[in-house]
Amino acid sequence: MDKIFLIGILVGIISRGIMLNTDRNQYPTKPNDLLNQFILAFVASSLGALLVPALIERSYTSITFLSLAAEQFRQVREHMRTSLQNMEDSQLVKRGDAFIEEIARTYEVRNYMCIISSFVTVGIFYLITRELKIGENMSIAISTAIGILLSLVMKKLLRRRQLSEIADVNIVDISFVNNSIMKVGSLQGITNVGLESDRQRYLEKGIGIEIIPKNGSYEYAGAILDPGQRQAIIYNLYSRLGIYRENYEIAFYPLPRRNPENESLVIAYIPIEKDVEKVLDAVNSAPVLSTSKGRNLSLAKYKINKKGTV
Fold first, then answer.
1. Burial class of residue 184, CB neighbours in 10 A (0-12, 13-18, 19+)
2. Which band of pLDDT confidence, cut at 50, 70 and 90, is reported for residue 27?
3. Nearest to residue 180, comparing CAs of 172, 171, 188?
4. How far is it, in rounded angstroms, from Cα 155 to Cα 117?
5. Is the pLDDT reported for residue 243 higher than 70?
6. pLDDT digits (tens, 9 = 90+) for 136-174
7. For the chain, what is the domain count?
8. What are all long-range contacts of 102-106, with beta carbons under 8 Å and residues at least 24 apart?
9. Residue 53 and residue 34: Cα distance in Å, rounded?
10. 8 A C-beta contact, residue 138 and residue 179
């Protein structure tokens, strides 16, 4: 019992590490947050590992600990949401409520995945030792492999889509019409930039971005044009490349605008370093928020600028 209990905890912690995504899109990213998450993973994995022997002994009251754990993890989600919201005013580009909720939900859900993976690991061990009469060491090896495999499957199922999967991103020109009206690509009227020095900064350092929904899909257009998704895109740009502005320079805040001609999204952005490839990579890697999905499902069979269904 002691050995498989420790194995179950270890598998649960490993599953948390697997689901962290060790690339630049990982949540969480800060060292203190990483330590906090692995401690929570230990707690969650312990609960999952203890649940199987408790059920075998018919100690059904022990299941109430799961409700306490769920409440604790909901508080973790609330704490993360509050922390990120408190930092919003200090950001040159804000995350937005939708992106904050996405991050907070991620923190909560992945703790439940630790419970599931450790529960399945210990459960498989008891199943094959008692029903199939397999030796302890072989049972531990099999249950551990199944637990880690389950973690990989859950990671695949919980993978967040990237913007590149639903949209094509192009670089377009920034110009000014009628002396001060900004034009990005074919869309004019983005904003009115009154100072000549500000317009010059846009022309020299700015990059125009057009995000076009793939396959002319209204469903993808609805996701891209969602207000929370728009904010997540420009925050992803800011977090990757920075922004060439001070807090008081309102004229240089990126303003995503809808182009009604093709339902695309256009942005004028001034990164710290004008590097087109890095800008394209930052936009393409922006996460597609769950709150932005499903807004245009009724138009899923329609194509932009085309009559009838497909």
1. buried
2. low
3. 188
4. 11
5. yes
6. 888 889 999 999 999 889 888 888 888 999 999 999 999
7. 2
8. 102/232, 102/287, 102/289, 102/290, 102/291, 103/27, 104/77, 104/78, 104/80, 105/77, 105/290, 106/27
9. 30
10. no
Q: Are residues 116 and 205 in the same domain?
A: no
CA dihedral 122, 124, 130, 135 (to 10 degrees): -90
Rounded to whole angstroms, how far apart are CA atoms 283 and 234?
Answer: 8
Question: Is residue 236 classed exposed, middle or buried when 0-12, 13-18 and 19+ CB atoms within 10 A define those classes?
Answer: buried
Q: CA-CA distance, 66 to 44, in Å (whole number)?
A: 9
Question: Rounded CA gap, 228 and 237, in Å?
Answer: 14
Q: Does the residue 306 lie in any domain?
A: no
In this structure, the dihedral spanned by the alpha carbons of residues 248, 254, 259 and 264, taken in order and rounded to 10 degrees, is -160
pLDDT score of 18 more than 90: no
pLDDT at residue 24 greater than cutoff 90: no
Instruction: Give the domain extent around 71.
Output: 2-157
**Alpha-carbon distance 218 to 156, whole Å?**
26
Examine the domain organization and report whether 17 and 77 are in the same domain. Answer: yes
Tokens representing 304? 């932009």
